[in-house]
Write a structure and sequence with these properties.
Elements (H helix, E strand, L loop, with lengths): L3 E5 L4 H12 L3 E6 L6 H5 L10 E5 L5 H7 L5 E4 L9 H21 L4 E5 L24 H16 L8 E4 L2 E2 L7 H9 L4 E4 L9 E2 H13 L2 H4 L2 E4 L7 H12 L5 E4 L1 H13 L7 H6 L9 H7 L7 H18 L42
Parallel strand pairs: 1-2, 1-4, 2-3, 4-5, 5-6, 6-10, 7-9, 8-11
Helix pairs in contact: 1-7, 3-4, 4-5, 6-9, 9-13
Length: about 375
């Protein structure tokens, strides 16, 4: 029986949502993170987390081997969510993702922890040329982040074959209440009554994943028989449309009658690459390429081996994230102004738009005489 669960990265969006769910289901949870977890994030995604006496917290870095060994002493299972974002400095990305994973795994092995769920990413495929992409597609990283994720998987695979059941989960970009990052840019522009740009026709299909579906998948993997769970699984929404459709759903929800506007793909990508190199745009290279081609994975293995099916479509997820974001804006005291944007340190903070904020002027329709828009 899985009773005591250690969650690394437990103060992040995924980790905190997972902790709330695990507490609701009767587990004892040990959160490991550089920060204290925020219980408000449990409620944002429908988890009560109303058993604080069943929560322990260790504030430590996953790269601290001694701290990890202490934190995992009584674990029945570990869910390794801790990672670094693509916007981190290059040396930190590999250190946190690869060395951190090795440290936590080593600690788990030393305590004979029977199950270790590693949260990876579909980024390990790089920019796959085959869609839907299956788990058999080779790892072909294209940047520091995807290379680190791929190497961390290799570390995990080195611990397989013994007493430890080690599922590797590869989710698509996940969102839901608590998610900010670049999504905050879309929400902000929609709320201000601006049109929103899309590269080319915007007819590429980009699969996403709801954080509640991801936590459901983690819990399913924690309880599945070892012979079923000890594998690698793609995770993503099974219902998803085009970028234009997803962005337009947010603009419609904003209620200003604004539209998604096509911009020339090649020239825009060239400009964004230049801005990225000069530090004036948070849009990193792999994301640019992802916005130009279809990007979705096969989730058949998770369905067949684990019996897991997601509940949310892309549109469901992005709209409930937007509804949460709007509520946060309403609740913020007027005198505090906007929350300072982060440089992309976490996915639960809005990223600085940099030079992209200057483009806003081009995406608000002109005011007609006698009409306020």
């Amino acid at each position: 029986m899985v009773r005591n669960v250690v969650v690394t990265g437990g103060a992040g969006m995924l980790g905190s949502t997972l902790i709330g769910k695990l507490l609701d289901e009767g587990h004892h949870v040990h959160c490991v993170d550089l920060r204290e977890p925020d219980p408000a994030r449990w409620a944002a995604n429908g988890a009560g987390g109303g058993r604080p006496d069943e929560l322990d917290v260790t504030v430590a870095d996953v790269r601290d081997g001694a701290a990890m060994k202490r934190a995992l002493a009584d674990a029945d299972a570990v869910v390794h969510c801790a990672a670094a974002l693509p916007s981190y400095p290059t040396d930190q990305i590999r250190s946190v993702i690869v060395d951190g994973t090795r440290n936590v795994l080593t600690a788990a092995a030393s305590h004979r922890v029977p199950r270790f769920v590693h949260v990876s990413s579909t980024a390990v495929y790089g920019l796959p040329t085959i869609v839907p992409t299956t788990e058999e597609y080779p790892r072909r990283p294209v940047d520091t982040y995807s290379a680190a994720k791929a190497e961390a998987e290799e570390v995990c695979e080195g611990f397989r074959g013994g007493e430890m059941c080690l599922p590797i989960l590869r989710p698509k970009t996940f969102l839901g209440p608590g998610r900010m990052g670049l999504f905050a840019m879309l929400f902000e522009w929609a709320e201000e009554g601006r049109n929103f740009p899309v590269l080319g026709r915007g007819d590429v299909r980009i699969q996403m994943f709801d954080v509640n579906d991801l936590t459901d998948a983690v819990v399913t993997t924690l309880h599945a028989p070892p012979e079923k769970a000890d594998d690698t699984f793609n995770l993503g929404a099974t219902s998803f449309g085009t970028l234009r459709e997803n962005f337009q759903a947010v603009l419609d929800a904003a209620g200003h009658g604004r539209r998604v506007v096509s911009v020339p793909a090649r020239s825009t990508v060239a400009a964004l690459r230049l801005l990225e190199r000069t530090g004036l745009s948070p849009v990193y290279g792999r994301l640019l390429h992802k916005l130009l081609d279809d990007s979705f994975v096969s989730t058949d293995r998770a369905q067949e081996r684990l019996g897991f099916s997601p509940r949310y479509s892309n549109e469901d997820s992005i709209l409930r994230t937007y509804a949460w974001w709007r509520e946060q804006q309403r609740q913020r005291p007027a005198h505090t102004g906007r929350r300072p944007a982060s440089g992309g340190v976490t996915s639960v903070e809005p990223w600085r738009q940099g030079a992209l904020s200057l483009a806003k002027v081009f995406f608000r329709p002109p005011t007609r005489r006698g009409t306020h828009v």
